[in-house]
């Protein structure tokens, strides 16, 4: 079976996009891991599958490179949305994901904006293992402490640090991802506040590891920073992949994320 694919990225956060709208596609966890293998397959942070939806323009499903399914992926949503926007010739579409319904817009400068919805801030919604204040969660590792947690369709813990360069993130990321307070594991963000409207962010992503960018992680970082009074409602988030994601939280709580998308190449998988 020859399966066409498109390799895309948002600021280096990379995806293999498959179109299963016409023909149902069921991939085993082993198949997902093989496609995600950067030496034996194509390689990706997430596998993005387009599927039919009755109440939206498309259903988007996400799988991590370890084979597990993810509820949300901000940059992957933007990449997939760019394809549907181009295909339909429209500037606004509705998207259904496992985490809920989202809206996507093509902006005049060619970037794609996703309404990620409001964050979930209660401990059960993150989820955390027990009742606690999600703004101050007692998670610690070498060089970091006092996480702020929320859900953007998937669980996030953000640590605010003075100097990102001083952290050994590959060493501390796995333990924090699998922390006992995160029963569904978590995406771990390390944020350095540069000003009221600008931060740097590095994310250790659940099921994928260190990434060049993480859209939902950027949303969570800005939400958590606002909760602590560190940034304004609109904030540029500089990621290791080069460039910025623009995050804005509206008065109604909805979090908007915009940024560039790109296609790296297209090909066929031999299944």
Descriptive overview:
This protein has helices spanning 29-36, 74-88, 169-177, 215-227; strands spanning 2-10, 13-19, 46-51, 58-64, 69-70, 92-97, 100-106, 112-115, 137-141, 144-151, 155-160, 187-195, 198-205, 209-211, 234-238, 244-249, 255-259, 262-270. The model has no long low-confidence stretch (mean pLDDT 96). The radius of gyration is 18 Å and the shape is globular. The chain has 271 residues and is of the alpha+beta class. It has an 18-stranded mixed beta sheet that branches. It folds into 2 domains: 2-115, Diaminopimelate Epimerase, Chain A, domain 1; 137-259, Diaminopimelate Epimerase, Chain A, domain 1 (Roll). The protein contains 4 helices and 18 strands. Helices cover 17% and strands 41% of the residues. The longest helix has 15 residues, at 74-88.
Compact description:
By secondary structure, this protein is of the alpha+beta class.
Compute the number of helices: 4
Shape: globular
- The helix-strand sequence is EEHEEEHEEEEEEHEEEHEEEE
Low-confidence stretches: none
Count of the separate structural domains:
2
Give me the count of strands.
18
Q: For this structure, what is the CATH class of the largest domain? A: Alpha Beta
Largest sheet: 18 strands, mixed
* Beta-strand content estimate: 35-45%
The level of helicity is 10-25%
Structural category is alpha+beta
CATH superfamily of the largest domain: Diaminopimelate Epimerase, Chain A, domain 1
**What is the gyration radius calculated from CA atoms?**
18 Å
The overall average pLDDT, rounded, is 96
- CA-to-CA gap between the ends? 5 Å
CATH architecture of the largest domain: Roll
- In the CATH hierarchy, the third-tier topology of the largest domain is known as Diaminopimelate Epimerase, Chain A, domain 1
